[in-house]
Prior knowledge:
The complex is a heterodimer of chains A (about 290) and B (about 375). Chain A is mainly alpha-helical and about 290 residues long. Chain A folds into two domains: about 1-35, no CATH class; about 60-285, MetI-like (MetI-like fold). Chain A is built from 13 helices and two strands; from the N terminus they run ααββααααααααααα. A two-stranded antiparallel sheet of chain A has the order 1-2. In chain A, β1 (about 35-40) and β2 form a beta hairpin. With about 375 residues, chain B is an alpha+beta fold. Chain B folds into two domains: about 5-230, P-loop containing nucleotide triphosphate hydrolases (Rossmann fold); about 235-355, CATH 2.40.50.140. In chain B, β9 and β10 form a beta hairpin. Chain B is globular. Classes of the chains: A mainly alpha (about 290), B alpha+beta (about 375). At the A-B interface, α9 and α10 of A face β6 and α2 of B.
Amino acid sequence: MDKWESNRAWFLILPVFVIVAFSAIIPLMTVVNYSVQDIFGPGQRFFVGMEWFREVIHDERLHNALVRQLAFSCMVLLLEIPLGVLIALAMPKKGWGVAACLVLLALPLLIPWNVIGTIWITFTRPDIGLLGKTINDMGIAFDHTARPLDAWITVMAMEVWHWTPLVALLAYAGLRAIPDAYYQAAKIDGASSWAVFRHIQLPKMRGVLTIAVLLRFMDSFLIYAEPFVLTGGGPGDTTTFLSIYLVKIAVGQFDLGPAAAFSLIYFLIVLLFCWLFYQALQNVGTGESK
Amino acid sequence: MGLTLEHVDRIVDGETHLSDINLEFPSGSRNILLGRTLAGKTTLLRIMAGLDRPTRGRVLVDGKDVTGVSVRKRNVAMVYQQFINYPSFTVYDNIASPLRLQGVPRREIDRRVRDVAEMLRLTPFLDRLPSQLSGGQQQRTAIARALVKEADLLLLDEPLVNLDYKLREELREELTAIFERGRSIVVYTTTEPTEALMLGGNVVILDEGRVLQSGPTDRVYHRPESMRAAEVYSDPPINYLDAVVEGGQARIGERITFPLVAHLEGLAPGRYHLGLRANRFFLKKRTDRDVALESVVELSEINGSETFVHVSHQGFSLVVHETGIRSHKMGAAVTVYADPAQFFVFDQEGTLVAAPDPHPAGPSARG
Lengths: 290, 367
């Protein structure tokens, strides 16, 4: 009797299985399937085993893209997290200014990503762009289509402009959640504002900052639309990040097998880094939050 | 050090939070600010600490005006309702933090931290972080941080309100002993009359930003000068009955009359409000002079090992405090007994006219 009832319970989670199968498992297994076959056309495919993985792992252009990607994501974190916290600290705590700041901050987050790329193209063009022309008129040669460093600076600036508000909003929410009594207690103790930041605000923000770091790392590691529109991965391949390179292989060259193998490796790298970050942030000052 | 408040007002956005507060806290005194929520207790503490400036009036320390002096330059310690500790410091570092900021030598810090930790039974937890402690231990840490400063002024803003019943009782007893030992002015806010009575010292009854009455805790309890003060200083709130005095006797409603005994003797004829705390009502006749009030049970609630019976008598809602757990059916008829010698008598304006003798049997009875 008991046995029968508990067996029947499996039917109740069947819908979830179906949804997860269609949304995640089947697409992922298709990619796994592609990654071990050589595909010439419909019906013309051959099993090649680990061949594509071997090829992709030894692809020097992929190594370069990975290094570039890591450098990019690390710089994103180094710039956006401190900047976001600074903005959150500087924001007003009450009054009409709060709403104004929140709206201003949210604006870049609401713009479609490829539009962001377009905005920044026109903004930084050396001939007609407001920023590009100004810099060139000041006597500094600046052209993100020709000079790798300029291209990097432009992509970084765009990324920081686009996503720092998210970090600031998260940090602001964390700050607002600190009861006023903490600040009073620190004031009565005679603690400096640095001490208040270091020993009250920062530990209390640890939870939201963990989320901010994870989100920003993952997102920047997967970045595609904005640099693709802005630089197309150039000049040369100096701003070709992992996903841009992946699309070049899959769509540009129609090498579905290597692209699938690449996707799986890409996926594992993202998972690995997220896990590493999560572990690291959990261990930094255990129990500091709450 | 003595602290004096002179004509202190606090008005925020046109709303009066405190109005004309005049209080004096002598050196080493223990003071309870008793009042309901929003009575202005926290506002007053903040002004005493120097966190806020009074809108009008002066704050004096030993006769010297410190009204505008920043909190950093005053020797103040404060404990809050919430458990406020530095989240990334261990208990030891938390307790030591105010001393480190004062630049006290390392060896003395160690001695003082360990003394206070011992007093508040925190010694086994000195290496833990606040988030690894129970609520009671977190508040003990916060209290230790306040005590270790040996500040001139120790302010506690309903420190036990977020703790469970058992911990509250326990910590309250310990605090009473700790306050006795220290030499700072202690100001402790609470909404609970029992807490005020247990902690002793002086009590200040605050209501809607005004001081209703102040004085030694038990004196105020036995002689609330107004109906409002008696309400704030009774839990459950004091019961009121209307009575008329004429022809040498008093009458409640139409039929219940009783002679003017004890402190009621000599009451001028007129209308009065009679006040009686819930624990002075009984469901059994105890003396011959007891007044019997035929009532109907409206609600009976059990709280710990006590029972509160809410009854209605001729339109008056009364609460009877019975010790022990009893059950009463809703709607049942009960007779409530009260000894007229226990009535507080207030005139029509709500001012105390006569109060019962708190020590009727004792040889050195006080008014």
